[in-house]
Amino acid sequence: MTSELDIFVGNTTLIDEDVYRLWLDGYSVGDAVALRVRSGILEQTGATAAVLQSDTMDHYRTFHMLERLLHAPPKLLHQLIYQIPPSRQALLIERYYAFDEAFVREVLGKKLSKGTKKDLDDISTKTGITLKSCRRQFDNFKRVFKVVEEMRGSLVDNVQQHFLLSDRLARDYAAIVFFANNRFETGKKKLQYLSFGDFAFCAELMIQNWTLGAVDSQVDDMDMDLDKEFLQDLKELKVLVADKDLLDLHKSLVCTALRGKLGVFSEMEANFKVCGLIQLLSLGPLQPPVHCPTGQLCSCPGLTSRWRCCPPFARLTGGSLLLNTGELFN
Amino acid sequence: MPGKLKVKIVAGRHLPVMDRASDLTDAFVEVKFGNTTFKTDVYPKSLNPQWNSEWFKFEVDDEDLQDEPLQITVLDHDTYSANDAIGKVYIDIDPLLYSEAATVISGWFPIYDTIHGIRGEINVVVKVDLFNDLNRFRQSSCGVKFFCTTSIPKCYRAVIIHGFVEELVVNEDPEYQWIDRIRTPRASNEARQRLISLMSGELQRKIGLKVLEMRGNAVVGYLQCFDLEGESGLVVRAIGTACTLDKLSSPAAFLPACNSPSKEMKEIPFNEDPNPNTHSSGPSTPLKNQTYSFSPSKSYSRQSSSSDTDLSLTPKTGMGSGSAGKEGGPFKALLRQQTQSALEQREFPFFTLTAFPPGFLVHVGGVVSARSVKLLDRIHNPDEPETRDAWWAEIRQEIKSHAKALGCHAVVGYSESTSICEEVCILSASGTAAVLNPRFLQDGTVEGCLEQRLEENLPAGCGFCHIPYDELNMPFPAHLTYCYNCRKQKVPDVLFTTIDLPTDATVIGKGCLIQARLCRLKKKAQAEANATAISNLLPFMEYEVHTQLMNKLKLKGMNALFGLRIQITVGENMLMGLASATGVYLAALPTPGGIQIAGKTPNDGSYEQHISHMQKKINDTIAKNKELYEINPPEISEEIIGSPIPEPRQRSRLLRSQSESSDEVTELDLSHGKKDAFVLEIDDTDAMEDVHSLLTDVPPPSGFYSCNTEIMPGINNWTSEIQMFTSVRVIRLSSLNLTNHALNKNFNDLCENLLKSLYFKLRSMIPCCLCHVNFTVSLPEDELIQVTVTAVAITFDKNQALQTTKAHVEKSLQRASTDNEELLQFPLELCSDSLPSHPFPPAKATSVDYSSFADRCSSWIELIKLKAQTIRRGSIKTTVTVEKTSPMGEGNFRNRSAAPCANSTVGVVKMTPLSFIPGAKITKYLGIINMFFIRETTSLREEGGVSGFLHAFIAEVFAMVRAHVAALGGNAVVSYIMKQCVFMENPNKNQAQCLINVSGDAVVFARESELEVVSTQQPAANCQPACTGGEVTT
After folding, report:
1. Which of B856, B356, B771, B804 is nearest to B559 (CA)?
2. How far is CA B845 from each of CA B66, B256, B487, B503, B631, rounded to the nearest angstrom?
3. Is the dihedral of CA A61, A64, A66, A68 positive or negative?
4. What is the C-alpha to C-alpha distance for residues A209 and B641, in angstroms, rounded to an integer?
5. Rounded Cα gap, residues B691 and B695, in angstroms
6. Which of B726, B746, B753, B951 best probes binding to A when mutated, by most A CB atoms within 10 angstroms?
7. Shortest alpha-carbon distance between residue A27 and chain B (Å)
8. What residue in A sits closest to B738 (Cα-Cα)?
9. Which of A21, A203, B8, B223 is at a distance of 20 to 30 A from B363, taking alpha carbons?
10. What ipTM does the predicted assembly reach?
């Protein structure tokens, strides 16, 4: 007796979150069943392995059919074939577009091309993420990139609108797109210790302050491209990286100016380099004080308030980001 | 009378890419009705075209409006080659033809292609202007409303229930026409879809005409089926129950849905039932009852032949008269005669309903069924489908005479089905023989209400169980006892029915799904020989199916089956039988005895040991089941009950009987302490295996219940979450081990595993109940078995459930002792005011007595005939009672729900096989949904194999049903049923084809919470009214 056909179709499409995760992680049906067995589900429910196998197959089939729609999330909302409650739809999309930290670090800043895709099996071996999952994540990056590449307006908003992602995930995708577009190489040895979160933070500030979109929202271009002139100017900042004396001078001047004005002064002082980066990223091309690295930095309008409202401040402690950011522009 | 159909094509979205070069589509739309076609402009280069067309107007007469579907075809314009079809939408405009249903169809419809499935959506607006005013319009067949629901629809009231309507139309199947050899599969599929759509339209129109002739205005329990007879053609047939329905709309209408409209008195549910108890029947006034005028029914019977002609089994006066003289006095005889005469006017006194207005069902006799094996031949003249008509007429006569034999004049819960394999066809019909209250069957004056009140003092919840046949003249041997509830009437030991549990029935504990599964190998044969072989096998299959059902029922510690549906499927080399029913413990029936195992070969030590081991296991299982289903009837000593009735005759004089185990009785050690028990005799390995298989049925995991009736007996606090689903499994048998035994095991495993999978899948809904579990078996090929299940999972509140049952039992206990006195005393005041605030909660007024009174070794018979069978069990005599508060509450509730409520859940369309939606009130019926789809593929592997293909197709069918309902302005489909799912594959050619036919009623519902404002005036007594389908309230 062999089962030729075995399906279950609900008026409301059943989504099992655990199986969805296994599917997203790229496990085969067999592996997924084994993993589920190991999770002790059989004991909890009194089901048999055959039931589990059939259930897993069924879910996998459903996900496979939904995948086409997940490639264009607004379609998932408007389609009539699968009746899925909105909260579940959001979950499906969010999970589908979620990515692994380890994976994104490998491809961040790389061109999202066929060539890179060919290297995915290496990445898979290196990170221990299944090739299937790597492909999905890579394709997601590429798809989002393609859709928002030529769009005007806020990068985050565009991602959010076309892929219906949460704010958090949309920001991450904006960062990925930004890095991919500008080909910032993040794979360098010196940058290895930085997490995706660190880069995403940088990207956000850069998008906010350094891009053409930030300069003038009316401009025909968008959030992805940096202002060329500004980049030229930025090179002057290298002096801070190269010359230790100048850096110390800069530090003392800034500290003098800020002493007593800042609640987090001691931390700032201890992590000056990092804070310097934050300042740097916070500043836009139109704000001249950057061009003059000695002394006047502190007089930059809004500095203190920015400082205070930088939540990732603590996260960056201990890093010499500034130095390494310089690395990006070499 | 003509009308004007107006159609506007608004827009499309998500269209497929038809032009590879541009990745876009140049779409336009053809709108066709009858022979007229309109086209929109081409909307170039877009996957989301905005046509925004003018109104296309079709001037047509109403016959076409009813028959023809509106056909919308979306095409891709191609300058140089032929335009490519993207897909089609068929819209049944029937719902626009009744005054109270939808007024406009407007919405997004999936564009469907039989090869590619759904390809985008199209927004369409459809309206119908009828030229005549409402009244004149309703004289035509167009005005007749159709409902799939097998009870009186929730926002209507039955004024009269006229009776059975049936019709069938035949045609050649386009798939088998010569032209099919040269046309594309798509063209062939579309021709078929269109033809079936036309045929169902025609069928509905014809049935409508019959209903109008009977002066009805609606068909309830409408069931339409297709027989794909292959070479010999395509038959579309339908049965239903004609009714005159009144919409409950005015807030003043406080009447229970069941009552006739004329006077206030009608608030009291009728209680025609004669009181057969000699104490109280004295005052009943037979004379008054004579005033019922039973006008001979009109010309609707298609043949003028009186039904008496074929009642060979019964004396003309019916069995009732004999018994009436004995136990009930003249009144009963009179009533019987009257009812009978009312019904005998009809050719077939059949009702497709499974739930009834209170008071309608008086007694239930048991299941009657008939089967017939026919050889298909080409239908030569489709306009005169005489053979098919004659076949069904024959079967219906059979059913009718079986019902007569049970002392019943009507058949309720009636249904018909076929199973076709090559040129052999098994026609089956089954129903429940019953005695009905004539009041609902007549145009109606309601007289004698006052007098009737005198009789209304009979206990509720047991009346329908009382036997309708004469005790001395029983059609088959059965063991009768006095009713454990009222102690005045006789009841059978076990009761089988095809209907839902009546609302007023007193049930102890919960019910459960009981299935009997059976396979029989058959030699491959041709034509006559094949038909004969099948005919010979059928009686044995039925017998075994019943044995299994009975064993499993006993094993569950229950004594009645509701919703019994036996399906016999014929295949090339085997027959399959699958019976599903919901077992319950009826308080009125005696406690079932245990199952005893008897070995055939004594003096063998180990064997004896084995037997006793088995016996122990069985006893344990029974005990466990009793606990599981909360069956704990209070033990009442036999003195209270009075002396047991003398042994009834074992053999009826009319029928042959087979009494299987009675010979063994004497040698048994009856460990249950009961007088008798059901005996299983183990005389060979097969029997041993049978016993084993009894024990292998695993109960559902805790928190799960299942039943195949509308609602689960014993659960009445549904919460609003529902999940309807269809699950299909096909297994391939290895041809090596094809023995009956291996087959049975495979089939049993298939069903059990399927159920287990369902429980697992739906585990997040616990505590929940699978309701209306509907299994369908088909044998698409030699070694393939296909099982299709459709059901709905409904969540319920566990805590409340427990309290209710407890309270219920306590109450019944308490009342049991005082019962007799009360009965004599308080009928008058009880009946005269049926206020909703009545101090007695409805179902409680019943007295319940239980006893350990033993169950008799149940030897039950089969009436074996070559081509047909009767099966029945038990019987009834209803005495409807003090129940009036209950319907009252319902009436009020219905009323409140009439307040129009905004459709809060836009977009979501619920689907359920039940006639109601838990936690919500249906405020409007929008019309019947009846859709037929074909899907075919030549790239099976690419679509994910057979599973992927069918999964996608069923999802698409659901989507199309939902879209049509939403376009009608509805938010749910009730009484949804997948009537056919024919799946054929040819993996070698990478091809598969599937046909699906679904139907249901599109409705608008409003959540009860939204209605709460209105409902605050109502006391708690009617707090569970959503379950009017048959739940005992508190």
Report:
1. B856
2. 49, 19, 15, 13, 20
3. negative
4. 93
5. 7
6. B951
7. 18
8. A1
9. B223
10. 0.79
At a CB cut-off of 8 Å and minimum separation 6, what does A260 contact?
none
Q: Alpha carbon B301 to chain centroid distance?
A: 24
Mean pLDDT of B391-399: 91
**Cα torsion through B430, B434, B436, B440, rounded to 10:** -10
Count how many Cα atoms sit within 13 Å of the Cα of residue B872 in the half-sphere of its side chain.
36
Nearest to B756 among A3, A48, A81 (CB): A48
**Residue owning tokens 């024959």:** B394
What is the pLDDT averaged over residues B116-132?
88
Burial of A288 (0-12, 13-18, 19+ CB in 10 A): exposed
Q: Which residues of B touch A73 (CB under 8 A)?
A: none
With beta carbons under 8 A apart, name residues in chain B contacting A10: 723-725
Total Cβ atoms within 10 A of residue B308? 10
Q: Is B958–A51 a contact, with Cβ atoms under 8 angstroms apart? A: no
pLDDT in tens, A13-59: 999 999 999 999 999 999 999 999 999 888 888 888 889 999 999 99
Sign of the dihedral through C-alpha B508, B509, B513, B518: negative
Q: Cβ–Cβ contacts within 10 Å for residue B377, how many?
A: 12
Q: Are B877 and B463 in contact (CB under 8 A)?
A: yes
The single-letter code of the amino acid at B156 is: Y
Which member of B729, B909, B911 has the closest CB to residue A5? B729
CA-CA distance, A149 to A159, in Å (whole number)?
10
> d(Cα B498, Cα B580) in Å, to the nearest integer?
10
Packed helices A49-70 and B740-761: angle between N→C axes, nearest 10 degrees: 50
CB B592 within 8 A of CB B559: yes
Yes or no, beta carbons of B756 and A8 under 8 Å apart: no
Rounded Cα distance between B487 and B879, Å, is 12
Could you report how far apart the first and last alpha carbons of chain B are, in Å?
51
Q: How many residues does chain B have?
A: 1034
| Six-digit token string for A184 | 């910032």
Q: In terms of residues, how long is chain A? A: 330
What are the φ/ψ torsions at residue B792 (nearest 5 degrees)? -130, 135
In A, which residues are within 8 Å of B725 by CB distance?
Answer: 8-11
**CA of A57 vs chain B CAs: smallest distance (Å):** 10
Question: pLDDT of B45-63, one tens digit each?
Answer: 899 999 999 999 998 887 7
Interface membership of B111 toward A (CB under 8 Å) = no
